[in-house]
Amino acid sequence: MAGAMWTVAGCGSNKGNDESEQDNPGMDDPIPPPGRPGSPDEVPDAGTPTETPDSGTPTETPDSGTPTETPDSGTPTDGGTPTTDGGTPTDPRQDVEIPPLPTPAGWRFYGADQGGPVTIYGVTADEGGNVWVAGGAEGLFLLKRGAEKFERFGMENGLRPYGFMADGSIPPGPKYLKVISVAGGKSGTVFVGYEGMPGTGSDHCENNWDGPSPDPARYKSGDADKVTLNSDGTLDVVHYDIFSGPNVVAAEKRGREKICNVLRIRYDKHALGNNKSSVWFGGNHGFARGNAEFDGAPMCNGQLNCTGVFEHVHPHVNALDAQGRVVLLTDAYYGVAVDPSGDVWFGGSDRTTRFRYGTNAGNFWRAQTGSENDSSNKLDLWPDAKPEYSKPGERVPDNISGAVVARDGTVWLSSFGNGLVHVDANGNVLGHMGSGSGLVDKYLSAIGLDPSDGSIWVGASWGGGLSRLKGGSITHYGLSEFGRKYGMSRISDIQADSSGGGRRILVSFMGYQDTTTKKWVAGAIGIYEGN
Predict the structure, then answer these.
(1) Does domain 5-528 have CATH number 2.130.10.10?
(2) Which of 155, 259, 260, 497 ranks highest by number of CB atoms within 10 Å?
């Protein structure tokens, strides 16, 4: 959520350790975009590490704790099926309307009648052209290349939306499944991001570890899996437990559990020196790296030589809350884009950074220093009145919803509330596109790059459809192409599939609650193969 703030109390750097190492509701409690009347009720590798920390003092003081104030801008999160327990639908298909699929030229649609989920958080394809869908509480869905029906996978098939206890056992207590992000890997493999168990205050998965009554059912919930489809239809699942164990973080000797909601994932198959391929996690509070070839180590206890994860980084800034107290500003890293150099762009609620992982030859810790200590690499793309120590009324939250690196090395980032921004390779702003720019809307919830011609696709948070920026012109796909039932839906994800020598643009239509009937209108997957 926009600009979650934290009293300065616990988030040490991984630097300086001898070991080789808001209540942000994430995707819950939908909030309509600010200033937008008439919207729907909702808006919608285990082994020795290949890199070692630089020596030095921590780059920041700890920052764990409950937010001291409500975020000062409303990022539209997402719709969801009716809930009774803070996020788990009792019956995801109860009171659901499944409209006939649209048939616009150049598009093919798949939805709930083809076995897909009724609420869709993301879509991707692996290198074999299999389409994977993040279906929230319904789980993970697969549309094999050439198939016409989805397959569904849940915890009963091995999905693991929770980490390990110190002895490798399953955390006690209830389990919470909500698949909210996907990124394709090798053929038959997908990386899956989860939402952690929701709650308020110290019950939220981000805060619970540092709260008065730590509950492993909460602080171990969420994170991510690597899921591989076997020839017999079963799954191999490897969990990425995004945390640091005892004595890994110099400023947090007890260990650290902060990232639980994995909002966006990007896979980078290209090796850097002795490093293996990477999977990048944009989450609540910060971002992290996973070894894409990690095979799992449940007895690891969070030590850097066996987790498969390096965590976490954020281009945080100091700010003031409504009472004038100093807080740390960092949250909601929906923007994740891999540069061909191996660097990675991360955009969050308040700041964006070029994480110079490739520039530093795969040294995570040096890249961390560049994103957390270099003020010129904490990019405020819609500038606040003050770069630091701003009051709530002096801030313009960037609310980044997605990012792509264009063919020329420049970067496009979409915002939940501000439109589109174009920056050069160093983060200098080349231009903004907001109201009156010709885009479908300034409330943008997803962005994608078309590998066929380098055009940029952006999707609206609700009721606007898509805009495609190509050769200086803008083409819209909206109500006339998709009809009202699907055209009103939030675009939750846009990704490209280049498998098999072709190109497909994959678009997820999340679904939404009809304000008249109060029924949930099911989402769908649109696959564009036109020019």
Answers:
(1) yes
(2) 260
